[in-house]
Amino acid sequence: MCVGTVAEGNVAKGEEPATPAAIYLKDYQEYPYSIADLTMTFDLGEEKTTVHSVCRMSSKSGSSVPMMLNGDASLELKGLYVDGKPLVEGVDYDLSEKELLIKSPPSGDFVLGCITDIEPQNNTSLNGLYKSDGNFCSQCEAEGFRCITYYPDRPDVMTKFTVKIVGDKEKYPVLLSNGNLVAEGDLEGGKHYAVWVDPWKKPAYLFALVAGQYVALEDKFTTKSGRVVDLRIYTAAHNSHKTQHAMDSLKHAMKWDEDRFRLEYDLDLFNIVAADDFNMGAMENKSLNVFNSRLVLASPETATDFDYNRIEGVIGHEYFHNWTGNRVTCRDWFQLSLKEGLTVFRDQEFSSFMNSAPVKRIDDVMIVRSRQFAEDAGPMAHPVRPASYMKIDNFYTLTVYDKGAEVIRMYHTLLGEEGFQKGIDLYFERHDGQAVTTDDFYKAMEDANNTSLGSFKLWYSQAGTPTLKVTTEYNEGDKTFTLNCSQELPVTPDMTQEKKPQLIPIKIGLVSPDGKDLVLTSVQDSTGSETSIGNATTYVLKMTEMSQSFTFKNVPVKPTPSVLRNFSAPVKLEMEQSSEELKFLLSNDSDEFNKWEAGQRLITNLIFDLLKSHQSGQELQMDNSVTEAFGQVLTDDSLDKEFRAYAMELPSTEELADKIPKANPVDIHKVRNFVLKSLAAGLKDKFLQIYNANNVKGAYKPDREGKSRRSIRNCALSYLGKLADSDAEIKALLNTSFKEASNMTDQMAALGAICGNAGEDRENALKSFYTQWSNEPLVMLKWLGLQAGSNIEGNLKVMKELLEHPAFDIKNPNKVYSLVGGFTRSAVNFHAADGSGYEFLADLVIKLDKLNPQVAARMVGPFTKYKKYDDARQALMKAQLERILATKPCENVYEIVFKSL
Ligand code: B3K
Ligand code: ZN
Predict the structure, then answer these.
(1) Where are the alpha helices (DSSP H) in 204-304?
(2) Residue 129 CA to ligand 1 centre (angstroms)
(3) CA nearest 2: which of 154, 151, 166, 128?
């Protein structure tokens, strides 16, 4: 559905909605026609926009077979002709809600013309061509092009696009599409036109059109072979001072891709446009990336360090798609991870290069563990390469993106940087200009390295998170150290047959009692084969069986094992580790990821022990040795400050809830908060010292030094905030830090710390923040999000007020994600025992479903995890899912709700 009228799905009026049909990977068939080129003319209007498309086509087999074109119900077909001859409905073609079938097209070459009228101004789904802030803007991935014209809207149909845009010159002075501008000029009646030709063939999902009032920041980049590329970032005039960081990020990304992957840009122009109304983050349309404005615009006063990093990463991500996605694209949407997993891996590597690599790794793992693992354990669990779907929009998931990136990272871990690069080179050598599969990528990796990756391929087809169980033993007599490993593959709703063992790379180090890594000489596995390691201190074990043991030889002393270094596989590691071992690794592990991980495990064990006490009515007692261990990391000057801030962060309530059956999120939140408060009280002096020592003087710069210092300083402030309700000195400190903040990172940190406690300070700070920033929509997102996620009891009342507030607009996805998405992260209010939070969310999903199915489907996500919670909450959430289903929602929401129930 492209237009935000009441969703009727694919049924005739008055009938019960048909169950949306699933589409299967196994049913893939090549499209029977090829398209030499496509010429489109857009006549942009206020009441309607007319689209005239002309394709030069030919039958691949040389015979006439029926030709299916996709088209949304919102299209008004004004003309359809073949070789100039109009076609007649019912005779030459059949038209249904979603398809147009030409019964017997010519068997040779022919020209197909199609004229449609569309209404972008009424398109609230933001899919296809729509209007944002008075400007025309498009979003075609995955299936938006069919909301523009009838066309084979599938990624394996690729052609060269010529696009002529005609529009009012005053209203739409800037007219953009993909490729190069080849002609422009004035027309009668105050109109003008522009013609764009994209020399690279592409699928329809990479098409883009933008028309409106923009100003551009311009720059140039010279590629390593000497091509001078014009770079432009378009925004509304009032935001033109906020694009420098995006431009810097783009140039860094272009240079990095040349240095790391030897990939160069392939056109003379690269445009980015910022749109305020956008369903997701950004879109990699060939040479015309469209971005959600929150991922382009940044100024020190309005954006935080987090925003600066996100912008850098996403600008990189979309730019990197030019090769991994555009030059080589997907054969079908089941292969989505071919481009997304690989491009996420590339953007992660880029951000690691630009910032702290261990911190970036921790950040990425936190997302996988707190959110992707939950998805993998829920009703929507699907493999990295799904086998079926109802709505592809619902499969732009953490599994396809982030687990997909972990799969790519595992190739890298198994083959090494050189082997991985050889595989990438062969992939492009074989497939440049093609639409291919994850199997093709896999084959290129194997062939380039002359190796077999065996059961590694199962990572693409088996859903669910493997559990890796490890026990260890040291044999004093023959100086060997053995790891006994077993893997368990969970049953997932998508797959009933038994799963086979997946190749798991287990990166390991053995830490000697003096804190140094032992030198590893050789390892023997339970199949008997022995491998010489060559005196390294870290080694990657390749686990291929359900159960397998690995014995390291010549181990002089009993070591503490550091297993799954750098999170070498996306698995749940189950391994008994005493508090003493964890504290030892927290101070000594040379692998920074596992150093951080030791702290996480230590604190998780403590929280779960305390949860038991809490639930049996006992008074909570902090373990002071844990406070001491954390205090040591916090003040260890040999460590990066940003890393130290991350080490102090506790696992989220969500991640903790995921680890136990029938979780009570409110209890977890209370215990977690007790631990935060206890750490704050125990380390108060240290936090104060850090806060005072890390004030960054001078103008804000998003550089590493500045970001690190702000990160540890604001971590300290956040902890100190936990003490404010009983400590007047701290209360005053929070207020001063809010008033004195000279950039948004510090201002938000102070506001966040103040808002943790109900009271006058909180009310005043929120009011003053609003007064200061009410004209900055992106800052208002922070204001909405902060209030929505509050764990102060009774906040639902505030939520209801905010829904009516001028700062909120249900038609703007960013505002919905901040306010409604933010609310679902509040353990206390979303999970309120009376079910009021769940009812609130369901009401909104039902409302959103009529306006924007993709956004509604994203908002229904928190309900899919209902089986994780206690019986009472399960019943309440389930009742809301049933209520949503009874409203006969659109296909996007239907698929998720149906699968959940
Ligand atoms: N490829 C787009 C995502 C499109 C989502 C469509 N529902 C952005 C990205 O991953 O780069
Ligand atoms: Zn992407």
Answers:
(1) 244-261
(2) 16
(3) 128
Q: Is 284 in the pocket of ligand 1 (CB under 6 A)?
A: yes
Asked if residue 540 lies in contact with residue 469, where contact means CB atoms within 8 angstroms, the answer is no
| Residue 447 alpha carbon to ligand 1 centre in Å | 30
**Which of 2, 139, 283 most suits a substitution to test ligand 1, by most atoms within 8 Å of the C-beta?**
283
Known active-site residue 628: no
What's the gap in Å between 188 CA and the centre of ligand 2?
A: 41
Closest ligand 1 atom, residue 282 Cα = 8
Tokens of residue 552, six digits: 């390291």
| Strands 128-132, 135-139: pairing kind | antiparallel
Nearest ligand to the CA atom of 142:
1
* Alpha-carbon separation of residue 744 from 354, 701, 750, 759, 861 (angstroms): 21, 12, 10, 23, 30
Q: Which backbone phi and psi does 630 adopt, to 5 degrees?
A: -70, -35
State whether the beta carbon of 143 lies less than 6 angstroms from ligand 1. Answer: no
Distance 269 CA to ligand 1 centre (A): 21
Atom of ligand 1 lying closest to residue 340 CA: 10
d(CA 173, CA 413) in angstroms, rounded, equals 50
Q: At what angle do helices 796-804 and 836-851 cross, to 10 degrees?
A: 20
Closest listed residue to residue 824, CA positions, set 803, 811, 840, 804:
840
**Ligand number, closest to the Cα atom of 203:** 1
- DSSP result, 48-100: -EEEEEEEEEEESSSS---EEEE--TT-EEEEEEETTEEP-BTTTEEE-SSEE
Contact predicate 149/155, CB 8 Å: no
User: What is the rounded CA–CA span in Å between residue 224 and residue 219?
Assistant: 17
What's the CA dihedral at 608, 610, 612, 618 to 10 degrees?
180
Number of H helices and E strands in the chain, helices first, is: 29, 34
Contact (Cβ atoms closer than 8 angstroms) between residue 229 and residue 220: yes
Q: Which of 147, 339, 340, 342 for a ligand 1 pocket mutation test, highest count of atoms within 8 Å of Cβ? A: 340
**Residue list, CB under 5 A from ion ligand 2:** 340, 343
Cβ atoms 219, 247 nearer than 8 A: yes
CB 113 within 8 A of CB 79: yes
Helix 305-320 to helix 744-755 angle, to the nearest 10 degrees? 120
Residues 6+ apart with CB under 8 A from 616: none
Listing DSSP states for 362-383 in one string gives HHHHHHIIIIIHHHHTSTT---
Catalytic option among 119, 143, 312, 318: 318
Can you list the domains of the chain with their CATH numbers? 7-213 (2.60.40.1730), 329-461 (1.10.390.10), 467-570 (2.60.40.1840)
Nearest CA residue ID for atom 7, ligand 1: 393
**Average pLDDT per run of 10 along the chain, which is 901 residues long?**
40 50 97 98 98 98 98 98 98 97 97 98 98 98 98 98 99 98 98 98 99 98 98 98 98 98 98 98 98 98 98 99 98 98 99 98 96 95 97 98 99 98 98 98 98 97 98 98 98 87 98 98 92 94 97 98 98 97 98 98 98 97 98 97 98 93 97 98 98 95 97 98 97 98 98 97 98 98 98 97 98 98 98 98 98 98 96 98 97 97 94
Ligand 1 centroid–CA 282 distance in Å is 6
Q: Is the CB of 340 within 6 Å of ligand 1? A: yes
